[in-house]
């Protein structure tokens, strides 16, 4: 009996405790993009303040960082955008794509109109 308990405890301790590798709730059913693949940036924005993500769907942003915005989530009044961040020196930080509140950035350069409506998929909110 003690060996079964020890085995069960060992397995429980090895289970992942992060959000990585699981489906998270959708933030929206639709998004606005520059093209049907959401592969071209809509705009470049600069972070007005630091943003610390609550879960793995979001990306951390530091004040002053440039953010390349690829999508604007539609159902939530464009409260959340999707994009990637870059450090002040290109290549200094690995680019990550994720969501962030639109209120923590200001638009600096419009690149393409966000005129294509695209349905979100489960992969838009999957944690790796």
Characterization of the model:
By secondary structure, this protein is mainly β. It is 10% helix and 34% strand. It is built from one helix and nine strands. It has one helix at 2-14, and strands spanning 22-23, 30-33, 43-47, 66-73, 80-86, 97-101, 105-110, 116-119, 126-127. Strands 2, 3, 4, 5, 6, 7 and 8 form a seven-stranded antiparallel β-sheet that branches. Strands 1-9 form a two-stranded antiparallel ribbon. A hairpin with a 6-residue loop joins strand 4 and strand 5. The termini are far apart.
Summarize the entry for a quick read:
The chain is 10% helix and 34% strand. The protein is mainly beta and 128 residues long. The strands form 2 sheets. Strands 2, 3, 4, 5, 6, 7 and 8 form a 7-stranded antiparallel sheet that branches. The chain has a two-stranded antiparallel sheet with strand order 1-9.
Provide the descriptors you would attach to this structure in a database record.
128 residues; 10% helix; single chain
Number of helices: 1
Radius of gyration: 18 Å
| Rounded average pLDDT | 81
Helix and strand sequence: HEEEEEEEEE
Query: What is the general shape?
Result: globular
Q: What distance separates the N and C termini?
A: 37 Å
Helical fraction: 10-25%
- Measured by DSSP, the beta-strand proportion falls in 25-35%
Q: What is the count of β-strands?
A: 9
Structural category: mainly beta
What does the largest sheet look like? 7 strands, antiparallel
Uncertain regions: pLDDT < 50 for 5+ in a row?
5-19
């Amino acid at each position: 009996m003690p060996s079964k308990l020890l085995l069960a405890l060992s397995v429980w301790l090895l289970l992942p405790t992060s959000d990585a590798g699981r489906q998270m709730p959708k933030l929206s059913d639709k998004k606005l993009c520059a093209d049907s693949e959401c592969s071209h940036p809509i705009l470049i924005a600069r972070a007005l303040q630091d943003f610390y993500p609550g879960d793995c769907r979001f990306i951390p942003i530091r004040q002053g960082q440039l953010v390349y915005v690829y999508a604007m989530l539609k159902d939530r009044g464009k409260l959340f955008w999707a994009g990637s961040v870059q450090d002040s020196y290109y290549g200094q930080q690995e680019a990550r794509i994720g969501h962030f509140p639109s209120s923590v950035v200001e638009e600096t350069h419009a690149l393409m109109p966000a005129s294509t409506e695209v349905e979100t998929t489960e992969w838009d909110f999957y944690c790796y």
